[in-house]
Amino acid sequence: MVINSDMKMADLVMLDIQILALIQRLNIPLGFRDKTIREVCTEHDVNETFFIQLANACHDSDYVPKEQQLTFPPECMIRYLQSTHKDFLHYRIPSIEKQIAEIEQFTDSPRNPELLLNFFREYISEFQSHLDLEERTVFPYTLLLSQCIREKTLLPQFSTEFGEYNIDRYMHEHNDIEEKLFDLKNILIKYMPPPTDSRKYNSLIHDLFHLEKDLNDHTDLENKVLAPLVRLMEKELQRII
Ligand SMILES: [Fe+2]
Ligand SMILES: [Fe+2]
């Protein structure tokens, strides 16, 4: 099903609960009553085209926007990705780390949870490096590229800072950040001794699956929406200069 602006915002959340995280990252408050997506976006100053592309990409993992649908300001996209990074780093990941740290309270073998925690902390450090790299390269690159197009000129700082950089390089270097979570799920489900309290243990497994799905969606968004958008901007800059 393709999401459009005439749909009611509340119906969209009922249709796909994943959209709730997207709404939160855009700082849109709940309490939609019967307002449409268009009305809610206007009320909260969210670019409607951007919201529709975002919602479709989140709802359908096979969704790829057409070139003519990439007409929203790139700044919206970068703000959204930055907000998602913060959400992962300051909320989702620490919450799972806390749950892993608590495993020893409901298992009989204290050594295993410690190994698991070290494994997850290694993952956090790799994860942080992935996010840091994007925040130092592709995000500022996109914003500066957008400024060059707006001002119809090749700004000197663009050539100095990003002379050798382009979106193909980003795509080449862009790796999956959810792979290690698969290993963690495997250890928890297959190899850890049975827990004494399986409710908390199962809740951790459930949260890991959820995080993995969200990370997958995030990577998809960067590959299927951000990259084509930036590629179009690169062509536009070539045309201008
Ligand atoms: Fe990212
Ligand atoms: Fe990424």
TrEMBL record:
It is found in: Cytoplasm. The keyword Metal-binding applies. InterPro entries: Hemerythrin-like, RIC_family. This is Regulator of cell morphogenesis and NO signaling. Transmembrane segments: none annotated. It comes from Breznakibacter xylanolyticus. Residues 97-230 form the Hemerythrin-like domain. One of its GO terms (cellular component) is cytoplasm. Keywords: Cytoplasm, Iron, Metal-binding. One of its GO terms (molecular function) is metal ion binding.
